[in-house]
Write a structure and sequence with these properties.
alpha+beta; Alpha-Beta Plaits; four-stranded antiparallel sheet; two-stranded antiparallel ribbon; 6 strands; globular
């Protein structure tokens, strides 16, 4: 999956059958690899962040992630493929 700097990959928490992906905190766990902690609070990276779109948990992957952290990007893409999650690409 190739991403340009001006694109975002939206990972939708639905499997091929349209069922919600479990566990329910999968998006937060996936994004936790790039989060930071300050004053006992978790801050998600703008390159990899959880979101809820139309009531479904999603992860938004910024197009700059492959250049800034290729290892994390490859992990995320592998996770998507292994779990057969739906994806969309949006242009900024």
């Amino acid at each position: 999956m190739q991403l340009e700097d001006n694109q975002k990959l939206i990972i939708i928490g639905l499997n091929a059958q349209g069922q919600k992906f479990r566990p329910s905190d999968w998006a937060e766990r996936l994004c936790g690899g790039l989060c930071t902690f300050r004053n006992r609070r978790m801050y998600y990276s703008p390159l990899l962040r959880p979101a809820v779109i139309d009531g479904v948990k999603c992860v938004i992957v910024d197009g700059k992630l492959p250049k800034d952290n290729l290892e994390m990007y490859n992990y995320v893409v592998g996770f998507v493929q292994e779990n057969a999650l739906k994806t969309e690409i949006q242009v900024n």
